[in-house]
Amino acid sequence: MRSALAWLLSLLLLMAATYDPVAPGKAIEFPRDAGSHPGHRIEWWYVTGNLESADGPLGFQVTFFRVRNPGAEGNASRFAPTQILFAHAALADPKVGRLVHGQRSARALAGLAEASTADTDVKIDSWWLRRADGAYRTRIESEDFTLELAMAPTQAPMLQGDRGFSRKGADARHASYYYSEPQLRVTGRVAVKGRARDVRGVAWLDHEWSSEYLAEDASGWDWLGANFDDGAALMAFRMRGKSGNPVWSSATWRDPQGRVTSYPGEAVAFTPRRTWKSPRTGIAYPVALDVRVGDRAWQLEPLLDDQELDARTSTGTIYWEGAVRIAGANTGRGYLELTGYGERVPF
Length: 347
Known about the structure:
Elements: H1 2-16, E1 42-53, E2 56-68, E3 83-92, E4 99-107, E5 113-115, E6 121-124, E7 127-132, E8 135-141, E9 145-152, E10 158-159, E11 165-167, E12 175-192, E13 195-212, E14 220-228, E15 233-240, E16 246-254, E17 260-263, E18 268-277, E19 284-293, E20 296-302, E21 308-311, E22 317-328, E23 332-338
Antiparallel strand pairs: 1-2, 1-13, 2-3, 3-4, 5-6, 6-7, 7-8, 8-9, 9-12, 10-12, 11-12, 12-13, 14-15, 14-23, 15-16, 16-17, 18-19, 19-20, 20-22, 21-22, 22-23
């Protein structure tokens, strides 16, 4: 009986929870907004990059998620899971032939798993991502690989949408606060199964926080973060409906001179050119795409096809997260994220 009452109380607390809203007009402030926003429902710090090593090109991903859990907020225990942290990390190595990845999850607990509100400083045990003196460092050590990277900004943060207010649907409630840091200069070391290599390259950091993210008519999204060789940068995404039709799209372009232009949905198009079917999950992903933003167009080709990340034991998702080479209006490297192709993203 007591367990049933506890479950019911948790459910009522969850239903009554009031998350901090996302509304236009907020000024993104640094370093505070580089830190955590625990009043919002969900948040992530997402770093992807393309690396060069003595053995050839590599891609990497490091993502930390924070999720507010209102069902535990009535519990006075310091061990109550009022905030939950997840992390995904991956290395794309053509010589391995598939994505090597790991994942972590933990309730927030000071010193062990936490996300600072003062600046970017998030950790789960020995996995961490932090910002100090304006630059980022990360260390990830899993069974199959290790990443130890430093990432120095070369450009100012790029605010997405309307000065950092990024719509994700027709209803303005479905939005996030969102900024990116493109063209990060990367140095460090990676190791796969004990073989270490010095690396250098270019990375992209996204930081988003939201309280109502996925619209009812959306099942997933396609997202691109592109660092071009001439210093330009592009973020473009489309939210897809259950039939695959775009229900909302947006893009932000920064030219080599630093001028920023935001594009509405009708100016943004993702056109699949080739699909790859996972031998493990049976999910088919459009891994080669044509992307158009305004009067510019590019062709995306994956560094390798098998860059599927199965995160069902942490965030409950399966998605394709891949390093891509970019040709067309200008050349570059970037990362492509494809979600909701197996089932609706479980936000």
